[in-house]
Amino acid sequence: MNTIAIDGPAGAGKSTIAKLVAEKLNFIYVDTGAMYRAMALYFIRQGIAGDDEEGVSAACKDIAVSLEYENGQQQVLLNGENVNGLIRTEQVSMMTSDTSKYVAVRAKLLDLQRNLAKTKDVIMDGRDIGTCVLPDADLKIYLTASASERARRRYLEQKERGVECDIARIEQDIIARDEQDMNREISPLRQAEDAVYLDSSDMSIEEVAAEIVRLFEQR
Ligand code: DC
Q: Mean per-residue pLDDT for 182-206?
């Protein structure tokens, strides 16, 4: 099976680009952030605090996360409920960053992610795909952009969804999340040694996708 790993900070354009590359190469796109988000939604619903590692870890046994594809679009199921429309709020984003640092949460999703890559050609995005989930991926990309550009993109995305938001606040949240994701003990966000570094600040989505396809084809 062919595998492409894309890692990078929040808002770098990983999911948009990975979807496009998946279409071009006829791969399945796997958004691992959505799986961590589904778990975070469960903790929020149960009233468990993000800094309560014991509570979060104990709740993990009550959670089943699975994926389905509808017209090629990934749907994430939390205990059988499609929660795709509920996991993109800033509250869930922050809770996800808070709880994805715990070993029990990561252990829960690791096998699921690895198994997906065993049976299908996948392009998988996240924080630790090249370093931990798929260390033997055929191509690894570390995709980033400046914090202000990432905030601008998130802002436009939220606006399009009809969500009113403040761009300065989004940038603060993004920086806080990067800080937490890069400095945690288990599977922190970092560039794998053999990953290609791409800064998308001044590149269009199409340009980045074309570059990844080119890198894959010439590897
Ligand atoms: O990619 P995203 O913004 O949907 O990810 C949400 C959070 O999930 C992110 O702040 C860190 C965590 N995450 C992770 O720890 N490992 C992954 N492979 C994907 C996401």
A: 96
